[in-house]
Amino acid sequence: MINRRHVLIGGSALAAGSVLSAPMVRAQGKPKVVVIGGGAGGATAAKYIAKDSKGEIEVTLIEPKEAYTTCFHSNLYLGGFKTFDEITHKYDKLVSSYGIKHVRQWANAIDRDKKQVVLADGSRVAYDRLVVSPGIDLKYDSVAGWGKEHEEVMPHAWQAGPQTQILKKQLDAVKDGQTIVMIAPPNPYRCPPGPYERVSMMAHALKSSGRGKARIIILDPKENFSKQGLFQQAWEKYYPGLVEWLGPKVHDGIKSVDPKTMTVVTGFETYKNCALVNVIPAQRAGKIVIDAGLANQTGFCPINPENMASASDPNIFILGDASIAGDMPKSGFSANSQAKVAALMIRGELTKSRTFPARYANTCWSLVAPDDTVKVGGRYEPKPDKITAAETFLSKLDETPEHRKQVQTENIGWYAGITADMFT
Amino acid sequence: MKIIAAPAIASAAAMFTFGALAQDKPKPKGDVAFGEYLSSLCVTCHLPSGKAVGGIPPIVAWPEDQFVAVVNSYRWKERDNEVMQTVTAQLSDDEIAALAAYFGGLPNQPEVAK
Question: What secondary structure letter does DSSP report for A223?
Fold first, then answer.
């Protein structure tokens, strides 16, 4: 890639990678947008910038993987409603349909002064605008006794891929009467209803396979959680006696885990010989944005609500879970919505195309049992201090089975829609 | 007030599928470029190919007046899907016309995966 650019630029510019960032050189070529991370934020941004600029902007997607496994609907894989292949999507159409350059490398660092991304092999890619959508990093030190070296014994499965498969395999091996412990994450974290949809899908998988005497204990550091009333009603209705949620006042603190003995210790009780321990730890923005000085003390990145640009660098746009997006939750839908705003604004800055005021939206569907899905969502607007909810909705406790079934068909349709929007 | 019955929409959309009316189509009343921008929110769920998946119906190649009528029925909360009510709540008449013009001009080609 660097070589081809050198050829295009001409002999005098061949000396060093850093020359690529010189304004003189940029002025002679197309503006360059580099996107780090091929998830709901990054893949969407890369596609929309390339598609809508119609060749006027050179778009490079830096993403080591050949295919992306979505965190959203990975719980449906656990519940047996989807295959792993069905939640995994290749990037090839972004390359063939829109001319996006897919660089299969890890991005190590952002050199903000030179406006370059440093890749794992040491080479550099220059940008005029950078989109960073790195997702979350896990705080491996946030649960005593647990760390990266234990993630195959006590999986998190909060970054979809091999971890999701490990969790499914462990779930499949649980015997009737055994105990599963989930350690839920503290706020803020990726996908607020996700842990509780996961528990619903685990309970369904157990109950529907003659393992209804197994027990799932949720140890939660939070006093309350997303869609709590809806989830608790569903657990009572569909999985009585199978799911137990314990808040901090009851468990009195998650003290430690021991992966060797599959033990979880709380101030209230000790759970020994667990068949499965799902540790979903505390989270922060991907390391690359923290190293680049784009995050604040919360571990996430402040942004300009009007356009998703970093509050500390107008040439860098931060999408999805890594950003502090005000009232918007950390979800795939949010990241996709933010990506479209950023794509529009970046095109406007680089090619003077028309821009319109930012609008954001989100909906999160959660499957609680076969044909029973609940949802939460909203519409969001930029205000000077943050992205602010303009209107929100939440499923009601007394909806009919027919309505809930309809919401599940909507959930299935949305997945087809957003993955087509991201990858085709 | 119900603006329009669902079967009427379906049959109108079906007519466009066969392309019979394509050349008779009037000039769009809304701003297509603006509609294309606004449409990016819609296509998170609705496939631009016109393919229906699950409970998300196709919205391409509809006659513009019918598109406007259906969106208004959500905006005014006469139809009862919360997602649609929320995303349409603040749309102006011009924005709805723009969306109708943009989606109305898309070919219905559900065989395309997208």
Answer: S
Summarised one tens digit per residue, pLDDT across range B84-109 is 999 999 899 999 999 999 999 999 98
Q: Which residues of B touch A340 (CB under 8 A)?
A: 40-41
Distance from CA of B71 to the nearest CA of A (A): 16
Q: What is the mean pLDDT of chain A?
A: 94
Q: Give domain limits for chain A.
A: 31-135+286-356, 141-281
B91 and A CB contact within 8 Å? no
What is A141-281's CATH superfamily? FAD/NAD(P)-binding domain (3.50.50.60)
Give the alpha-carbon dihedral of B48, B50, B53, B59, to 10 degrees. 80
pLDDT band at residue A14 under the 50/70/90 scheme: very low
Q: What is the CATH number of domain A31-135+286-356?
A: 3.50.50.60
In chain B, which among 1-40 make CB contacts under 8 A with chain A? 33-34, 37-38, 40
Structure tokens at A328: 């918007």
Tell me whether 0.85 is exceeded by the ipTM. Answer: no
User: A82 vs A77, A87, A88, A407, B47, CA distance in Å?
Assistant: 5, 7, 11, 17, 20
Q: Which domains does chain B have, with CATH numbers?
A: 30-114 (1.10.760.10)
pLDDT of residue B113: 53
